[in-house]
Amino acid sequence: MRKLCLLVALVSPWASAQVLQVESHSLMRLPNTTSTLTLERLDVADYGTLLVPSNVTELSVGQLHLGREARIAIVPAQQALDVKVVQAELAEGSQITSRGAQGTYTKAARPGRDLNLRFNALTAPQLSVDARGGAGAPGYVGLDGANGQAPGCTWGAAGRGADGSNGSDGLPGAAGARVRLELPSAYPAEQIKVTVDGGAGGAPGPGGKPGHGGKAKGCLVYTADGGKSGRPGAEGQPGPAGAAGVVTVQRF
């Protein structure tokens, strides 16, 4: 029986982990094998980062300590994350981030993840939460125009360069998150900083370059003039910013 317990502990150390420590200047990721995690103590040292995966929906901590510039970084997900802390001590510059992901050419920007945060007791110079939406992807670059055909000594003038195509518009930014805070009534309101801005719209796509006209050519009897260059494509429009999120603070 003792060997079996030891085997379980070695195979699944997170299942029985009650105290978790993230070393300074290091990154640790919580396991993604369960949606609910309970820790007696969580200590993230100075400049350390704890990553919370998208499938975790409930995190309960007895004692939480975030060192200077320490981070709890939450991966974007559709389902909200509930965090309950009995006693928290947060150092200067520490932060909980739940930002959305920036958009790409193949994926739309993702909104900040909704959060429900409860601190039964809180000691911190500032409670900082960043739950902004992801920025939109930039627009596509317009295609360059083709170059004009060079003239010949036995046929007409050089060809005109083709126009560049227009760049596309930037894609929309994603919405900020909905953040609900449950805090002791004694914690000062001026020390609460929650950012839920929508993500910036994507940059406009540049227009395509114009094609060059066919080059002039000297012939035995006459000189063939070069062709005119095309026009550059127009730049697209910036994408719209995402909608701002909502912050709710409840005191007890």
Automatic annotation (TrEMBL):
Residues 231-245 have a biased composition (Low complexity). Keywords: Collagen, Signal. Residues 1-17 form the signal peptide. Residues 228-252 are annotated as: Disordered. It comes from the Bacteria. This is Collagen pro alpha-chain. It comes from Pseudomonas fluorescens.
